[in-house]
Amino acid sequence: MLDISKWGSKKAPIHLEDRRLMKIALNMGEKASPISQAKVTESEILSAKKGDWTSLSNIQRAFHPLLTSLAQKRTTDPAQVANYVEAGKEGIATAVRKYKQSIGASRFSIFIVDYIHEAMDTVDKKKRGFFARLFSRH
Fold it and tell me: From CA 70, how far away is CA 104, in angstroms rounded?
């Protein structure tokens, strides 16, 4: 069994006779996997494509953890992360407009990633000023 009588002491040994005591059930909840959690229905995608703002907002909300993680991989500045997330939402809106039923709702999360990255890349391009664009070497 577990000897908890001396937990305050740094030298107190912990004896485990039964390994089942160490199994802790972790409920990962919404943090498990943003892509696996983001399930949207075909009807919701099609209604957003027709112009339903509520459906588009629901889709963007479903993919918000993905947007946040992609933005945090690009920068640690909170203001810039917010800019990337907003650009990612625009990317989702673009993906919804270009969605075809042949893609299917099950592959929608894979379909939108390219549009999200493309929209987030525009944030980097907008950041440059007039003279930086004028005298750039690109």
Answer: 23
**Tens of pLDDT along 29-71?**
445 444 444 578 899 999 999 999 999 999 999 999 999 999 9
3-class state of residue 113 by DSSP: helix
- Are 32 and 39 in contact by the 8 Å Cβ rule? The answer is no
- Exposed (0-12), middle (13-18) or buried (19+): which is 116, by Cβ within 10 Å? buried
Q: Rounded to whole angstroms, how far apart are CA atoms 104 and 88?
A: 21
Q: How far apart are CA 109 and CA 35, in angstroms?
A: 7
pLDDT band at 124 (very low <50, low <70, confident <90, very high): confident
Q: What's the token pair of residue 78? A: 């909170």
Runs of H (alpha helix) within the chain: 34-37, 42-49, 53-62, 64-74, 78-97, 108-126, 130-134
**88 closest CA partner among 69, 110, 102:** 69
pTM of the model: 0.64
